[in-house]
Amino acid sequence: MKLSTKHLIAIEPLTKTDIDLIFSQADEFKEVLNRPIKKVPSLRDITVANLFFENSTRTRLSFELAEKRLGADVVNFSASTSSVKKGETLIDTVNNILAMKVDMVVMRHASPGACQFLSERTNAVVVNAGDGTHEHPTQGLLDAFSIREKLGAVKGKKVVIVGDITHSRVALSNIYCLQKLGAEVMVCGPTTLIPKHIESLGVKVEHNLQRALEWCDVANMLRIQLERQDAGIPYFPSLREYTELFGLTQDRLNSLGKEIVIMHPGPINRGVEISSEVADGNNSIILNQVENGVAIRMASIFLLAQGIKRVS
């Protein structure tokens, strides 16, 4: 089977069959990652360029590791050390890289729609590693995959996404992916950090963290996206107040009288949206998310590469 799309720009256009196919392939690659020899030569004739116009640690390393585990040739590009600083445009940068016979581009960019723009102007396969406040599809996939791994299924589960929903690309990808797989989704945070009309996506909205935690099976804690917020506009009085109202502590968990799964896409701001005790506790699957990120990205790249040429 093949994916219904040439590119991985967003979760929204994917079908449930696409997601199930990626998960099935990721299951196989997780077995590979646990072997003494963690490489397979599946993409030994494919060249992948990682174009990161925003700073990244986990996502960039996860993609690079996934590509190398598949045997691909990898080219890394960082805007901070490139001709972009000299005024070169996005399309010129990419065309110069593609002239070097690159087959696939993994791109992170600050502008929503940048990956779609690129996919319409190049022949290479494009994978979105996060575009502004739009989507981060592989994060949405790995989060749902991690829930499936922990709880046995996503369908019927209640998942609350807590924090800066307005500025988060992770939140939108999670909402689309979880709903396609049959989960109920709630968002929770200050009124100023919840987009207007988000209920139109079929999600519940809650502004009281305690009620949200009592409702859910899984809590996905997001950090405050200070780098994407409008400078000079306060979205809440102080970080101290935000932590008091929306920070997840062990005391809050203990008060529930039930076990819930704790997630975080990273990077974690310990002591703000989540305490160290919770992040490192038995309820947390944060490090499982990191591990699953490599398997999900291996699966996505492998399946997308089938549209480039025959994968051996």
Describe the structure.
With 312 residues, the chain is α/β, with parallel strands linked by helices. It folds into two domains: 16-136 and 291-305, Rossmann fold (3-Layer(aba) Sandwich), CATH 3.40.50; 138-286, 3-Layer(aba) Sandwich (Rossmann fold), CATH 3.40.50.1370. Helix content is 37%, strand content 14%. It is built from eleven helices and nine strands. The chain has helices at residues 16-33, 58-69, 90-98, 114-119, 137-151, 169-180, 209-215, 239-246, 250-254, 276-279, 286-305; strands at residues 47-52, 73-78, 104-109, 125-131, 158-162, 184-188, 204-206, 218-221, 261-263. The strands form two sheets. Strands 7-6-5-8-9 form a five-stranded parallel beta sheet, sandwiched between helices. A four-stranded parallel beta sheet has the order 2-1-3-4. Helix 2 (58-69) links the parallel strand 1 (47-52) and strand 2 (73-78). Helix 1 (16-33) crosses helix 11 (286-305). The two termini are 15 Å apart. The model has no long low-confidence stretch (mean pLDDT 92).
